[in-house]
Amino acid sequence: MSSCSTPDKDQDVTLIQETESGYVSGSGSEASLPDIYLTKFHLAFLNRQLQFLEPQDILRWCITSLPGLFQTTAFGLTGLVTLDILSKMKIPRPQMVDLIFLDTLHHFPETISLVERVRSKYPLVNVHVYKPDGVDTTDEFTRKYGERLWEADDELYDWVAKVEPAQRAYRELQVAAVLTGRRRSQGGKRGDLDILEVDEAGLIKVNPLANWSFQQVRDYVEQNNVPYNELLDRGYKSIGDWHSTQPIKAGEDERAGRWKGQQKTECGIHNPRSKFAQFLREQEIRKQEEALHQALEGLEASG
């Protein structure tokens, strides 16, 4: 009589083998594998090793070491260089790094046009587009949140246009690590940027071009015929939403045109998540207080 194995029996055999050997492999039972975290010591060690590598080598390490790896991008110059480098590494489909683009519905037309040119130039790369929840157009956004929300409530705008869509993307795509376009030469809080970071929720952020200057990035784009945002030829260097981005003058920091005249230097996705958790709690408390106030007014009117 012939015998055949079943999934349950195979799992039992695997567990017995792991127990007998005292070791666990990735091909074995997931239930027997512990969660792996980067300790501060390990993170510091990796950054010491990675800081001396060229972006190509950093990206190669990422592909072989980090599961659930994606690239978040607003199609700035640094992100485009990262995309082009990856495209030349001949990565097989399962290991290819997909893009996540947060369409705030307030990007410049030139940025939206660039998205299509990128898709044409790199047809093998998937671009996952995430918009504010429940809206697809600028008009719908305005009807839901009011005119010029970024002026009326800047933190709420960051949450609905950037932070919530990013968190939704990470959850739905099972993102464990992301490549960013941040560099030290961009100034501000980015001046002491590490190659490898871990945020409060355990998301690994990799800044493969952290060591490069703006000129190095621009030279690569020109030498490799990388598509780029036409606004760069009109004095812009760092490009975000149209309402918070201006051209810069000679000698100004690269990101001086972002949120000009404000203390703000980062969009919501690079701020601590705890900041927005507190913000949402405060929003909920405010709503409850308003509802209570309205209820009391109704009682007084009926009395």
Detail the topology: elements first, then pairings:
Blueprint lengths: L6 H15 L18 H11 L4 H11 L3 E4 L4 H11 L10 E5 L6 H13 L5 E4 L7 H8 L3 H4 L1 H20 L3 E3 L16 E3 L5 E3 L7 H10 L49 H30 L1
Parallel strand pairs: 1-2, 1-4, 2-3, 4-6
Antiparallel strand pairs: 5-6
The mean pLDDT is 82
Assembly state (oligomeric) = single chain
Tally of alpha and pi helices: 10
Count of distinct strands:
6
H and E string: HHHEHEHEHHHEEEHH
Structural class: alpha/beta
Distance between the termini: 88 Å
Report on this model:
This protein is of the alpha/beta class and 303 residues long. The chain is 44% helix and 7% strand. It is built from 10 helices and 6 strands; from the N terminus they run αααβαβαβαααβββαα. It has helices at residues 7-21, 40-50, 55-65, 77-87, 109-121, 138-145, 149-152, 154-173, 214-223, 273-302; strands spanning 69-72, 98-102, 127-130, 177-179, 196-198, 204-206. A 6-stranded mixed sheet has the order 3-2-1-4-6-5. A hairpin with a 5-residue loop joins strand 5 (196-198) and strand 6. The N and C termini lie far apart (88 Å). Residues 1-5 have low confidence and may be disordered.
